[in-house]
Amino acid sequence: MMGGAACLLTTTLLLTLDRLFPPDLHRAQAQALVLYDTTGAPLDGRVSTDGSWRLTTNRAAVDPAYLALLLRTEDRRFWWHPGVDPFSILRAAGQLMLRGHIVSGGSTLAMQTARLLTPHRHTWRGKVEDALRALQLEWRYGHAGVLDLYLSLAPEGGAIEGTAAGSLFWFGHSAAHLSPAEAALLVALPRRPAALRPDRHPQAAQQAAALVLARAGTPVPDGLAQHFGTAHVPHDAPSVLTYLWRTGARGPVRTSLERPMQETVLRILRATPPPRLGGWAALVLRPDSSVAAWAGNAGNDCPGCAMDMVTAWRSPGSTLKPFIYALAFQRGVLAPDTILHDRATRFANYAPRNYDRVFHGSTTVRTALQQSYNLPAVRALDLIGARYFRATLQDNGVELRLPKGATPSLALALGGAGVRMLDLARLYNALAHEGLSTPPSVTEPAPDMQPTRLFSSAVARQVLGILRGTPLPNGMQDSPARSLAFKTGTSYGQRDAWAAGVQAGWTVVVWAGRPDGASSPGITGLHVAAPVMTRIMDTLPAGPDTVGTPLRALAPLAPSLQVLPEHEGPRVLSPPNGAVIESFGPDGAATPVGLEASGGAQPYRWMINNQPLATPPGLAASWQPDGPGFAHVAVVDALGRASSVTIQVH
């Protein structure tokens, strides 16, 4: 009875002490961030908040031969003892008594881990604290957990901590595959990390590694020193590094970036003179929406050039126009061949003008978008509503940032809001993938994100077809092989020049300007950003044109988001396009005009001059004109596909 009570009391005491004095894991949790490309080659890195190159490492990511060598050298009975090895302690104490000095230590890996978590001087009191903490660590995390902590904290020279970081810096590769010499150096370094640094003391490092191998009974390879490199992490993706750091990413991170493509994009940007005191930025998305290249800033030294323009909020100029028209097509109020009037118009207190200060009269939506006329785009936004436009984009993961206290207005059509390049690329990527909007991913594997439907596949194809007819920059020749669909934009005051293009499923967005927001007189999206965008696009892998191919869903699509099978859309049969109809008789009375359509999915909805036509159920559709003149007649089927004609009524 007494024994049971004593055991219970002891257990209660230990649990209480464990809760009152938990192990301090701050050092283990303060990780550096190292980025790798798709092949596993290092791209960039940043030290932890305490200035160390410390990377989370677990035994599954380390060469088994290294683990065997480590345990054979440092703690043969690691999997047996509870954190403190009584045989090692007795042996060390006996050697101390017989020889008068320490011959071998009694520290286990758990005790070394305790000291690495809370560094202190080597004293008897410290040894006792390490032993107690080692017991606690084994109790809390088990043998495997303690081993993982050691692998993450082991000092490997200078500010390098952990087996993964040591392998990266000294050998230039991961710790998953280590030669015997490399494994031996990583085992030896924690004993004297300053004295054995291979970049400063190569001979000492070679001798220490050879001694570890010899004591373990492993043959020492010839030319041992040639296995040891110098500490270096490239700095090839600083913008992505900053972006991921701000999201809380730490440790080794595999990105979706391709080093050759990243270098190619940077080379193109740096080889092209930027605007005066300005710079470049570019983003390249693969057909699966992953980021292949991310250049947040490139060009000459300039005010604010260190800013990542991929995530900066800038005016998009005219680059949102395709999506205004797309949503107008989706709602059935416009179609590619709808006639719009490009003439001086005042919308309440807003009187927009074209960039060239010239109005072009009557024009189709197709021509207006290809030529980037301002008034037709503002009219289209007025038809669907600025609030609806902004809310729809927001529902699909794209934010338009307005000035403080402002509400959505028609100025959105001409760049009257802030947008990030990352979101702009998402919009154009949706055009390439049946209207499905998926956030660009920069890590592998990509996070599970369910696409949302921005607009129908038919609308996406209509807009892409229009953008393929956009005039190319001066000096660039079109060809049948080129399927580039693109749009340019220039913000108010010539502060930003944009070009966004889609080809064969790839999306490229390029920005030029001054990061500090100052004006760059003379820059335009067409003449500055578009040539660079097309040069980047021409370097991308050739292949079949996948524009319009449904995006592979990163998660199962909800039933409402399933990609619908393609069918022929509706077509207006009567009245035919361009018809002149005598509707008004001598007495001024109007004869109704019959409306007939075929194709698509019924029921149909009819729009007259962008206004819905009420048609009683069971009756044929007809329209009674309220006066002579031109009229726009559109039909929209049940799937949101539309076609239209323009007629003249007398």
From TrEMBL:
Residues 566-647 form the Penicillin-binding C-terminal domain. It catalyses: [GlcNAc-(1->4)-Mur2Ac(oyl-L-Ala-gamma-D-Glu-L-Lys-D-Ala-D-Ala)](n)-di-trans,octa-cis-undecaprenyl diphosphate + beta-D-GlcNAc-(1->4)-Mur2Ac(oyl-L-Ala-gamma-D-Glu-L-Lys-D-Ala-D-Ala)-di-trans,octa-cis-undecaprenyl diphosphate = [GlcNAc-(1->4)-Mur2Ac(oyl-L-Ala-gamma-D-Glu-L-Lys-D-Ala-D-Ala)](n+1)-di-trans,octa-cis-undecaprenyl diphosphate + di-trans,octa-cis-undecaprenyl diphosphate + H(+). Its EC number is 2.4.99.28. Pathway: Cell wall biogenesis; peptidoglycan biosynthesis. One of its GO terms (biological process) is proteolysis. In the N-terminal section; belongs to the glycosyltransferase 51 family. NCBIfam families: PBP_1c. This is peptidoglycan glycosyltransferase. It comes from Acetobacter peroxydans.
